[in-house]
Specification:
The mean pLDDT is 95. The protein is α+β, with helices and mostly antiparallel strands. The strands form two sheets. The chain has a three-stranded antiparallel β-sheet. The chain has a two-stranded parallel sheet with strand order 4-5. The protein has two helices and five strands; from the N terminus they run E-E-E-H-E-H-E. It holds the Pfam family GMC_oxred_N. Belongs to the GMC oxidoreductase family. One of its GO terms (molecular function) is flavin adenine dinucleotide binding.
């Protein structure tokens, strides 16, 4: 495994942390062993949840159709 890559086993990512002013991802929020944790990325966040989970994760993070996000009380970072 690469030195600059960290993989958290048995963790469920719930949100990509995004700076609303720059629209740049800076980390992720996840649940592991019933505890909600946050980690910050030094360089980049890689989304690899597949055809179903990647769009879901982006929408939970505020990236998606404004109407749909607003209906669920999710602050809109980027309307698509």
């Amino acid at each position: 495994m690469r030195k600059n890559l960290h993989v958290a086993m048995e963790a469920y990512v719930t949100k990509i942390l995004i700076d609303p002013s720059t629209k740049r991802a800076y980390g992720v929020e996840f649940i592991r062993d019933g505890e909600t944790l946050r980690v910050h990325a030094n360089k980049e966040v890689i989304v690899s949840g597949g055809a179903i989970n990647s769009p879901q994760l982006l929408m939970l993070s505020g990236i998606g159709p404004r109407e749909h996000l607003s209906e669920h009380g999710i602050p809109v970072i980027q309307d698509l």
